Amino acid sequence: MAKERKRPHIETEIVHGIHSSHTTSMDLVPPIHMTSTFKYRNADHSAGVFAGTEEGYTYTRISNPTVDLLQEKVALLEGGEAAIATASGMSAIASVSLSLAKPDDNFISCNSIYGGTFALFNKHLRNFRIEPRFLSPSSCCSKRQILDLIDDNTRFLYIETPANPTLDVIDIAMWKSIAKKHGLPLIVDNTFATPYLQKPLSLGADIVIHSATKYLSGHGDIIGGVIVGTKKMMDHIKKEYIEHFGPVISPFNAWLVLRGIKTLALRMEKHSDNALKIARWLNGHPKVEKVYYPGLESHPCHEIAKRQMRKFGGMLSFEIKGGVKEGKKVMNNVKTCILAVSLGDCETLIQHPSSMTHSTYTAKERESAGITDGLVRISVGIEAADDIIMDLENALS
Ligand SMILES: Cc1ncc(COP(=O)(O)O)c(C=O)c1O
Fold first, then answer.
1. Stretch (H or E) spanning 190
2. Is 114 in the active site?
3. Helix or strand (DSSP H, E) at 283
4. Measured in angstroms, how far is the CA atom of residue 210 from the centroid of ligand 1?
5. Element (H, E) at 121
6. pLDDT, tens digit (0-9, with 9 covering 90-100), for 147-206
7. Distance CA 279, CA 273 (A)
8. DSSP code of 101?
9. Within the chain, how many helices (H) and strands (E) appear?
């Protein structure tokens, strides 16, 4: 007989999850509250809702029933008290950074991260006199080198794991031990892994960020983001930034993310199994110089990945012998794989970081982050792995 558990398995929570419906209509699938404003019975009612003494909504930039459902769902799956859904992954990252740091503050981050995040940190936050202190991939594993960068004006530590596009795996528990010692919040971008494969909050992280554009929604049809953490921290970010800068998600997009999440477990299993098969095949290919996939025993962080992830996800990168010239030939000759940025969709997407997603770096910055010109990134889809392998084989030859 199955043992009784305090909480259902994550696959069950992904499908059922939260039960509050915010309506009395008993729909199985929640309706989309596509409204910018909300009505009141009378002036006392409106005053009570605005004062917070009565239940109700005021305005969709502040809160919305469909958006609330998404927030509750992602908070539940990540094991956080509360969440904030945002217009994009970038607005989630900007909202967290700008609500935690002020002019003359600094923060620590690895330098191999999504190109948009790197540009936000390296250009725009610098314009606000907020200084990013970057570590190269090898330094991200060194406690000493991380500690050396922290001073009285450090406000948070930021990691992305697995990292885009180099697939470095950052040891969340190790970073947490440093964050805790200095009383700093640790922020983890969990976009590549999703809560199905990795739960940063359970490893000590304070805030989890998602580009919901990717695996959470899973179908390449929306842009969205989510921030998860304690209620106190989410209230702070909401009041400090979200409510008045206004980067909120549309209720329709929130609904599409909710719908996408229902198949998250199935999709992440298939993405991960396909990616492992393709990574192993690429690893033995005579035209391939190097494969970056945390599921390969040869990956330098394989042991950390095994410790903190359930499977290894759908993202992989590789270098082709002959560098960028040969890489371009592959991208021009694939048929099943699609030449496009973004990731986490059902379709396999292939792209060239140094001329596409990571063209926000200078050549020198890319070199320091380990993003070579010959690197090709694949977001492995949920097609039959053998068809993707055949497509890559044809393109490589
Ligand atoms: C790891 C990671 N974080 C954040 C983002 C930004 O998300 P969005 O495009 O939804 O703004 C991306 C986009 O590719 C990403 O790959």
1. none
2. yes
3. helix 264-283
4. 7
5. none
6. 999 999 999 999 999 999 999 999 999 999 999 999 999 999 999 999 999 999 999 999
7. 10
8. -
9. 17, 12
- Tokens 């239940």, located at residue: 55
Strand pairing report for 349-351 and 288-292: unpaired
Q: Which domains does the chain have, with CATH numbers?
A: 10-261 (3.40.640.10), 265-396 (3.90.1150.10)
Tens of pLDDT, residues 50-86? 999 999 999 999 999 999 999 999 999 999 999 999 9
Q: What is the pLDDT of residue 61?
A: 98
| pLDDT value of position 1 | 56
Calculated CA dihedral for residues 224, 225, 226, 227, nearest 10 degrees: -160
Give, in order, the Cα–Cα distances in Å from 118 to each of 101, 123, 134.
Answer: 16, 8, 10
Atom of ligand 1 nearest to the CA of 92: 11
- Which residue, judged by its Cα, is nearest atom 16 of ligand 1? 114
CA-to-CA distance for 35 and 158, rounded, in angstroms?
Answer: 35
187 Cα–ligand 1 center, Å: 15
Contact call for residues 173 and 193 (beta carbons, < 8 A): no
Task: Please pick, among 73, 176, 214, 267, the residue that the annotation labels catalytic.
Answer: 214
The tokens describing 136, both together, are: 């190269």
The string of pLDDT tens digits covering residues 27-39 is 889 899 999 999 9
Quick check: is 189 catalytic? yes
109 Cβ inside 6 Å of ligand 1? no
Coil/strand/helix, residue 27: coil
CA angle 390, 394, 397 (to 5 degrees): 135
Identified catalytic residue from 40, 57, 61, 310: 61
Identify whether 61 is a catalytic site residue: yes
- Ligand 1 and 385: CB distance under 6 A: no
Are 359 and 384 in contact by the 8 Å Cβ rule? The answer is: no
